[in-house]
Amino acid sequence: MDEEKEDFEVYPDAPDLKRVHELRSRLRADKADMDASGTGPDSRLNRKVGKTAKDIGTYTLIPSLMVAGPVVGYFLGRLVEKFASIEPWGAVGGMLLGVVAGFREVILLLKRKSENE
After folding, report:
1. Between residues 84 and 96, the one the model is more confident about
2. What pLDDT, on the 0 to 100 scale, is given for residue 106?
3. Cβ proximity of 90 and 77 under 8 Å
């Protein structure tokens, strides 16, 4: 039993502080070289690529909002029709409210985007 207990109480060796210091200094030197050459994570090119990707995401969201609003509105209007027995007007009203909600979200999205730039 004592032999099994000794096997589980084995701790790893302490790190070699000289090697850790050497690796950290190499890492700092490599980061300085990347920043000087303009290829680091904070370089102008990477910021431009990140902004372009963010713009693509924003502009792809707009058609999704314009489709999702009326679709959700339609189904909610159909649900209202079942309970209120106003046959075509629930779906029509729901779609119109969905269109308004979609335009509102697009306007708010573009407003937030212009404020962040």
Report:
1. 96
2. 94
3. yes
Would you say residue 16 lies in a domain?
A: no
In a domain, 46, yes or no: no
Q: What does the pLDDT read at residue 40?
A: 63
Q: What is the pLDDT of residue 111?
A: 93
Domain span at 105 = 53-117
**In terms of Cα–Cα distance, which of 19, 20, 23, 45 is closest to 34?**
45
Residue 88 lies in a domain: yes
Residues whose CB falls within 8 Å of the CB of residue 94, separated by 6 or more in sequence, listed in order: 73, 74, 75, 76, 77, 78, 80
The whole-model pTM stands at 0.57
Q: Identify whether the C-beta of residue 91 lies closer than 8 Å to the C-beta of residue 107.
A: no
Q: How many domains does the chain have?
A: 1
